[in-house]
Design a protein that fits this description.
Bound molecules: the ligand Nc1nc2c(c(=O)[nH]1)N[C@@H](CNc1ccc(C(=O)N[C@@H](CCC(=O)N[C@@H](CCC(=O)N[C@@H](CCC(=O)O)C(=O)O)C(=O)O)C(=O)O)cc1)CN2, zinc ion
Strand order of the largest sheet: 1-10-9-8-7-6-5-2
CATH architecture of the largest domain: Alpha-Beta Barrel
Shape: globular
Number of strands: 22
Number of domains: 2
Number of helices: 27
Strand content: 5-15%
Distance between the termini: 83 Å
Length: 769
């Protein structure tokens, strides 16, 4: 009988207890041999397939698993390996693979950047005009066969499509795009041919680039590419998969010569539904409907979603032409709710992580195939759980609602403009030209993490833990003084994560124990859950900052995470507007900043590394988001005294599109990542003629490599060709929590010498300094 199918688009790699992370780091630290590493990761991979099979998913993906990143996997598959990592014999060893991602003492890592508007980071493929793509090892074939041998299942391999891959790559001129694409397409066809020969029926080709603004020329490229592939591999069906927004140019898109389209009906719901209504859907193709949120952790309202699915069914050529899927890969949500024993049952009951989402998909599919009555109890249960949370006290905090209602429409403003503040502040701080500073965190060593674990488990008292944090802070204040940094930080030793830590102290947040999500490589984050109204209770950072400041004559920056970043790096309730949540967090931070000022802290950094990440993918939505962001940031920061210096920090970003918003934050100093992208962003600030305090990172902290004095000096010199030395700061790209002390200390020493050298050069050109 013709049936609707359930399909997954991608499963989390990290494991219920981050077994994958531990295997990777064990291998890097030589605690696991290569054989042990390969065996461990194989067992993990098989267990993920098993789980999906057990839950009853019809179409299970392979190729979603990775040793680091799936974009890097795709680049390596096609031999897109930067020259500096190439081996004589063209072999791509594990060592080559990890060097591209992490760098080594001889070569800088490839750039890493945000995957669309998520907190996942991919390795940017480096391609030159001369690059000759070639097929290395067909890993998809190996993975397909592995699943077949282990479970006898025919899986659906997943690959990043050629156009998305090329558009996300760097290093070639736009004029070479066509030629590169022409050389890639036969290689994709070859991979697909081998898969078809091995028995694959479908391949999922991810082309999320289609949700960015697309024009007819772009679509023509798609048409040519997929025509060619289909002609070369007629036996394999292609699902062209999109996610994160609605597709542009729907009417032409659905004419592409593929066998199915995957559309996002969560983040792209409005646009995709309207297009479907207007243009219908081709009867001979599959509609893979992303109806279960792959990016948030709330239970699906199954009854409503089932109605939506029934509606979609009327557009397809029959039930066998509809698949129910998550809205995107489940890479972006934690693995399972089952191990969360400490959560408030009211909340827990309203949550669904990856495994639970797969069950939801299976339930919806069953409801379509066997009728609503067959799943009625599940529909009722989901509705009830959602309602209970909605009516809870935490979601209805009257005091917070009153404060929000009181807000002015006008952008909050500092009492004096930047020029006036700069004058006042220069008299207070007496900083040298090109002041040196760091971004906030110092190494979170095993010792620091262990101390926190002991304290959490109750093995250490509060006093023991606090003493430990104080000792660590004092140690690093002395280290910073010795290195000769001008503006110090307390080191953030008390923080597990820059977002989770704040969430733990604010009302309206909840935490999981194992709710980890991959951020980049082996690094994971455990986003807090903003499930209620956010409110400030008690000082969060004041004791640590005041203590650090009491140890030294140098200024120590207070260190907070900004409202937009707290929002973007949490799983957020979706029953109130983004602006309301931004402003709730901003009002809470404002109280914290007031407390810091009262404690005599004169420099306060409010980090917004995720501001760029949250930028909507559609042009028409961008301005409103940026306005909300600037409003919330200024609500938190702009009331301060003229002699309180407000800093912010951003990383992993392409700043071009947000430079006006950055300027509108009206901070006294901003520090920005620049070294990891090999200095590229300097041009942005030249174009804009940025006039406020700014530090462009001279040290790529994501690599274990220790940069030389010359290298950092040359980054600073390049920046100073476009920026006024009177506004320029010298700092690393980001915080140093992921680095070891033995990497951090020499690198910062080099940085300070680099600053001294550049200052000396400037003294020849600028008198009176
Ligand atoms: N939320 C967020 N997103 C971000 C960033 C960020 O800092 N935060 N930075 C950018 C880059 N992304 C990053 C993401 C994660 C990490 C990172 O260091 N993550 C750590 C986990 C951090 C953490 O929460 N640590 C906990 C410890 C968690 C833990 O592993 N506990 C172990 C015990 C550890 C031990 O004994 O050694 C256990 O419970 O079993 C703590 O310090 O308390 C990791 O994966 O290793 C760094 C950068 C962009 N996005
Ligand atoms: Zn950063």
């Amino acid at each position: 009988m013709a049936k609707v199918l359930s399909a997954n688009l991608g499963y989390p790699r990290i494991g219920e207890k981050r077994e994958w992370k531990k295997a990777l780091e064990g291998f890097w630290n030589h605690k696991l041999t290569e054989t042990e590493f390969l065996e461990t990761t194989k067992q993990l991979r098989l267990s993920y397939l098993q789980k999906q099979k057990d839950r009853g998913v019809d179409l299970i993906p392979v190729g979603d698993f990775s040793f680091y990143d799936h974009v890097l996997d795709t680049a390596v598959l096609f031999g897109l390996i930067p020259e500096r990592f190439k081996q004589h014999d063209d072999a791509v060893t594990l060592d080559t693979y990890f060097s591209i991602a992490r760098g080594n003492q001889n070569a800088e890592a490839s750039e890493m950047t945000k995957w669309f508007n998520t907190n996942y980071h991919y390795i940017v493929p480096e391609i030159s005009n001369q690059t000759k793509p070639r097929l290395t090892t067909n890993r998809l074939l190996d993975l397909f066969n592995e699943a077949k041998e282990a479970f006898g299942i025919t899986t659906k391999p997943v690959i990043v499509g050629p156009i998305t891959l090329l558009k996300l790559s760097k290093g070639y001129d736009a004029t070479h795009f066509d030629a590169l694409l022409r050389s890639l397409v036969p290689l994709y066809s070859e991979v697909f041919t081998q898969l078809a020969a091995a028995g694959a029926e479908w391949i999922q080709v991810d082309e999320p680039i289609l949700v960015r603004t697309t024009n007819n020329d772009d679509l023509n490229i798609f048409k040519q590419v997929y025509q060619q592939i289909k002609a070369a591999v007629p036996g394999l069906k292609i699902l062209l998969q999109t996610y994160f927004e609605s597709v542009d140019c729907y009417a032409d898109l659905i004419k592409l010569p593929v066998d199915g389209f995957g559309l996002d009906f969560i983040d792209g719901a409005a646009g995709n539904l309207a297009a479907l209504e207007q243009f219908g859907f081709p009867k001979d193709k599959v509609l893979a409907a992303g109806l279960v949120d792959g990016r948030n952790i709330w239970k699906t309202n199954l009854a409503d979603t089932l109605s939506q699915a029934e509606k979609l069914l009327t557009f397809t050529g029959g039930p066998e032409k509809l698949w129910i899927t998550p809205s995107c890969s489940l890479l972006h949500v934690p693995v399972t709710i089952e191990n969360e024993t400490a959560l408030d049952p009211l909340l827990k009951d309203a949550l669904a992580f990856a495994d639970q989402k797969l069950s939801e998909i299976v339930t919806l599919t069953k409801g379509l195939n066997e009728g609503r009555a067959s799943v009625q109890p599940a529909l009722d249960a989901a509705r009830q759980s959602i309602q209970h949370l909605q009516q809870s006290e935490q979601r209805n905090n009257r005091a917070v609602e009153a404060e929000l209602a009181d807000l002015d429409k006008e952008l909050p403003k500092r009492p004096k403009d930047y020029a006036a503040r700069q004058k006042i502040q220069s008299e207070v701080f007496h900083l040298p030209l090109l002041p040196t500073t760091t971004i906030g965190s110092f190494p979170q060593t095993a010792e620091v993490r262990q101390a926190r674990r002991k304290w959490r488990k109750g093995e250490w008292t509060d006093a023991q833990y606090n003493d430990f944090i104080k000792e660590e802070t004092e140690k690093w204040i002395r280290i910073q003084e010795e290195i000769g940094l001008d503006v110090l930080v307390h080191g953030e030793f008390e923080r597990n994560d820059m977002v989770e830590y704040f969430g733990e102290k604010l009302d309206g947040f909840a935490f999981t124990r194992f709710g980890w999500v991959q951020s980049y490589g082996s690094r994971c984050v455990k986003p807090p859950l903003i499930y209620g109204d956010v409110a400030w209770q008690t000082a969060i950072t004041v004791a640590e900052s005041a203590f650090a400041q009491s140890l030294t004559q140098s200024p120590v920056k207070g260190m907070l995470t900004g409202p937009v970043t707290i929002f973007n790096w949490s799983f957020v309730r979706n029953d109130i507007s983004q602006a309301d949540v931004f402003n709730q967090i901003a009002l809470a931070l404002k109280k914290e900043i007031q407390a810091l000022e009262e404690a005599g802290i004169r420099m306060i950094q409010v980090d917004e590394p995720a501001l760029r990440e949250g930028l909507p993918l559609k042009e028409e939505k961008k301005a409103a988001y940026l306005h909300r962001s600037v409003y919330a940031f200024r609500l938190a920061t702009s009331f301060v005294r003229n002699d309180t210096q407000i800093h912010t920090h951003m990383c992993y970003s392409e700043f071009d599109e947000i430079i006006d918003a950055i300027d509108a934050l009206d901070t006294d100093v901003i520090s920005i990542e620049a070294a990891r992208s090999h200095g590229e962003i300097i041009a942005t600030f030249e174009k804009f003629a940025y006039k406020k305090g700014i530090g462009l990172g001279v040290y790529d902290i994501h690599s274990p490599r220790i940069p030389s004095v010359e290298e950092m000096q040359s980054y600073a010199e390049r920046a100073l060709q476009v920026l006024d030395p009177h506004i320029f700061w010298i700092n690393p790209d980001c915080g140093l929590k992921t680095r070891k002390p033995e990497e951090t200390i020499p690198a910062l020493k080099h940085m300070v010498v680099a600053a001294q050298n550049v200052r000396a050069e400037l003294h020849h050109t600028i008198p009176n300094n």
